[in-house]
Inverse folding.
């Protein structure tokens, strides 16, 4: 069953704790992305990676970190430095062969209490 | 820099009535244009895209969008909506195959029985 997996679906953390969101894909896509979605603001790009062992900051990278040690995995860590971490987080991938289309995972809803 | 405007944040419409969701973009260069749909608590799915060629593009579930270069618009239309069309719709723009995707703020379509 091919696709993008994000786990968990819902995540609760206390303020001041770091938390890592998982994104795994078996589509063999080279590029992976993390977006944050807030009501009325659409999607904002946090980090992206075009290839293994390389990643770039997006528009709102402050307070977040990522790694890309494997092609299939692109975990996102929300650190305590992120001032307003409660949001819906979406992971996406894109193939080198079809650069015009992004494929999205089901998302993780993070609530910081 | 590119940007995307979706003029209506919420659009209520009765079942079987027509609907138009508006999207305008700003860019100094040619772009690719997309409409994505998001059902509650899910990721985004590509609905349709314009890359080049015919300015009218269609989806498999009855939606269509027309690229208007002079008005820099890419409005989404459906002649008769169904309850299952209730969702959030995002317009997006991309400068080239390798560029980042810029998303609009989204329009929430509510179909009323």
């Amino acid at each position: 069953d091919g696709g993008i997996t994000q786990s968990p679906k819902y995540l609760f953390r206390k303020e001041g704790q770091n938390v890592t969101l998982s994104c795994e894909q078996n589509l063999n896509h080279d590029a992976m992305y993390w977006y944050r979605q807030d009501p009325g603001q659409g999607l904002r790009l946090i980090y992206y990676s075009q290839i293994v062992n390389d990643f770039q900051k997006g528009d709102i990278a402050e307070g977040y970190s990522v790694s890309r040690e494997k092609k299939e995995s692109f975990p996102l860590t929300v650190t305590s430095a992120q001032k307003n971490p409660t949001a819906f987080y979406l992971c996406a991938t894109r193939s080198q062969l079809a650069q015009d289309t992004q494929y999205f995972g089901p998302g993780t809803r993070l609530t910081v209490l | 820099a590119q940007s995307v405007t979706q003029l209506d944040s919420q659009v209520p419409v009765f079942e079987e009535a027509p609907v138009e969701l508006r999207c305008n973009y700003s860019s100094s260069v040619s772009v690719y244009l997309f409409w994505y749909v998001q059902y509650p608590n899910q990721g985004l799915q590509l609905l349709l895209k314009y890359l080049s060629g015919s300015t009218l593009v269609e989806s498999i579930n009855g939606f269509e969008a027309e690229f208007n270069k002079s008005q820099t618009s890419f409005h989404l239309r459906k002649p008769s909506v169904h309850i299952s069309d209730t969702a959030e719709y995002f317009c997006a723009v991309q400068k080239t195959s390798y560029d980042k995707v810029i998303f609009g703020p989204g329009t929430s379509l509510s179909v009323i029985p």
